[in-house]
Specification:
Order of helices and strands: EEEEEEEE
Helix content: under 10%
Largest sheet: 8 strands, mixed
Number of helices: 0
Number of strands: 8
Radius of gyration: 13 Å
Shape: globular
Strand content: over 45%
């Protein structure tokens, strides 16, 4: 049986913080809690000071919290861009 996975990367301007397979990504945005699972529809959201949980294929939960992050999901690829600055 072939288990569906997500390919997840967390990218900051300085370095890549995570790159690997996961079964889900969860967090909270301004609308509430959400989960990204394999075969999820295209999705983009802004996350501010909310924990982002990545569930890896081996059952571990990796937790990250950033002041500001953009989460983008398309065709089982999830990109989390962080260390973003808001300029006026």
């Amino acid at each position: 049986m072939n288990k569906l996975i997500l390919n997840v990367r967390i990218i900051s301007p300085q370095k890549e913080l995570f790159n690997g397979p996961a079964t889900s990504v969860s967090s909270t945005n301004s609308e509430g809690k959400f989960d990204i699972l394999p075969e999820h529809a295209n999705f983009i959201t802004l996350v501010q000071n909310s924990q982002i949980t990545i569930r890896t294929g081996d059952g571990k939960n990796l937790n990250y919290t950033f002041p500001l992050a953009i989460i983008y999901s398309s065709i089982n690829d999830v990109r989390i861009y962080t260390d973003l600055a808001i300029t006026s």
